[in-house]
Amino acid sequence: MSGAPLLRVRGLEKRFGGVHAVRHVDLDVLPGERRAVLGPNGAGKTTLFGLVSGSIFPSAGTVELFGGDVTNVPESQRTRLGLSRTFQTSRVFGGLTVQDNLYLGALGVRGGRLRPLRTAKDAELRAAGRRGAERVGLGTRLDTLAADLSHGEQRQLEIGLALVAEPRLLMLDEPAAGLSRSERQLVTELLLSLEREVTLVLIEHDMDVALTVAEQVTMMHEGRVVMEGTPAEIRASKLVRDLYLGSAYAA
Amino acid sequence: MSARRAWAATWYGVVAGVLLVAALCPVLFSTYFTSAVAVIVLWTGLAAASLTFLAGYGGMISLAQTALFGVAGFMVAKLSVEQHWNAWLAALAALGVAVGVGLLFGAIASGSEGIYFLMITLAFAMLTYYYFLQAPTFGAHEGINGVMPPKLLGDPVLHPTRIYYAALICCVLIYAGVRYLGRTAFGLTLQGLRDDPVRMSALGYTVRLHRTLAFASAAFIASVAGVLSAWDNTRISPGSIDITRTIDILTVAVIGGLYRLEGAWVGAFIFVMLDTYARGLSDRFETYIGLVFLAIVIVSPDGVTGLARTIDRRIRELTGGGAKPPQSPATPTEGAAA
């Protein structure tokens, strides 16, 4: 692992009208890191994801990706640089098959998005899509419309769409949301199987998933980073217990 | 899965049958039918197809298609009648201008969605209509008369069969072209934008650029229809692109089914048939059209082509196409295996 951070956030602020969603956040993520961002609802985790991925722009502060300032770079270009994200509620293309969904995931970061002809490149992209489908456990569902998939399968496709872009930085927003125990197990195994070339940042409320996958944890509360540490430190922390359960339970 | 394949095969069979009838239309039916109904169905369907393409593939419901149809129609009329250009050259230039206007309209509208997109494109429709209504260079409210198709096609009154086949060829080529485009990088991207533009942006796509180019592609389809209509009618006037015509094209597309390209011509057929024959039955023709429209939208929101699919699904359910599991959970063989 080289020393320079892959993601470097400094003094990041985001206000939505009167709501101060993210307050002066600094964050460094090193190449190969597995980092979980934890915190109760409304802590600013998803807003932070939006600011890093570029779907929203900060009120103040800077975002550096892969060594370059991207604070004012639009989302689609950050994706092409090697950042892929997923969403809390699945955003898959319901009217297209699993295969076509993953084709689009692979095409987005490569040239030729406007190509009005079918070429050999399409076959390569489809092959990449099929590999992605195998990887997230949808190898037998290639011709199913995404709208006809179960909730769990849509979550798998959600991750698959980001993975087929072969990102250097993968940001997952609650990948295990709404999954059954066995499905959570599958997601955990998938995340553990990711190569070290892929740096991982995830938001997750399920502590079993988050603390199994993560090696570093950033704890947020009311828009601020309140603690950073290893999963062991987080498990032992009174602050974390207070934030999640309320201080009444602390005694 | 296999049910979908079977469905697709049936559908292709129907399309092939319709195509055969269409190809033999001047032989099977009267000259009157060919010139007063069939050829109008073709170019009206083509105009509606430009909307169906945008809506079905891109999720953009546009009211500007008649305006783009008009830009091409007026350009081909102006260049061939007043500037005495060769008809083919005039048509080519008209397509170019209309696609250019489509690019401009698309660039402006591509930032909006839903009702706002509808309003912006309605503004384009009104703007274009009033421009042609008032611009003396395009004949103002008179429009331009005496437009002649290329010599190869001849006078549409004397040779209705020729313009009919020209229109049929255009329709078939554009239909096939759009179906092909739907499976390319460009077309699949467009369908991704229809389903979830937010995700497309996160996957690295430039949403506005893509929408703009799709809008220009639809402008091309609408402008082919505009040129064909100007040739077929030998004239064009602002009345051909007023708000009523704009609503007509929307009606045609919705009757046929906004989400299936074939629907545009199905809708045009129903519309033109009613327009031609219901007029003779009663002067309440518009009321009948309204009732038919209402009935179709209530019974099948996806139009006539959607209706076919709905019926198919119902039949499958009634005949128990594997919808319900058998009552007894374990068959003897399963029991033996356990």
Question: What is the overall pLDDT average of chain B?
Answer: 89
Quantity of strands of chain B, as a count: 2
CATH fold type of chain A: Rossmann fold
Please report the first level of CATH classification, the CATH class of chain B.
Mainly Alpha
Oligomer: heterodimer
User: Helices and strands of chain A: which structural class?
Assistant: alpha/beta
Are there runs of chain A of 5+ residues with pLDDT below 50, and where? none
What does this protein structure show overall?
The complex is a heterodimer of chains A (251) and B (338). Chain A is α/β, with parallel strands linked by helices. Chain A has helices spanning 45-53, 75-81, 98-107, 120-135, 151-163, 181-192, 207-213, 231-236, 238-245, and strands at residues 7-16, 19-29, 34-38, 60-65, 68-69, 83-85, 169-173, 199-203, 216-221, 224-229. A 6-stranded mixed beta sheet of chain A has the order 6-7-8-3-9-10, sandwiched between helices. Chain A has a 4-stranded antiparallel beta sheet with strand order 2-1-4-5, with helices on one face. In chain A, strand 4 (60-65) and strand 5 (68-69) form a beta hairpin. The N and C termini of chain A lie far apart (41 Å). The model of chain A has no long low-confidence stretch (mean pLDDT 92). Chain B has 338 residues and is mostly helical. Chain B has a single domain (26-319), classed as ABC transporter involved in vitamin B12 uptake, BtuC. A two-stranded antiparallel sheet of chain B has the order 1-2. Chain B starts with a helix and ends with a helix.
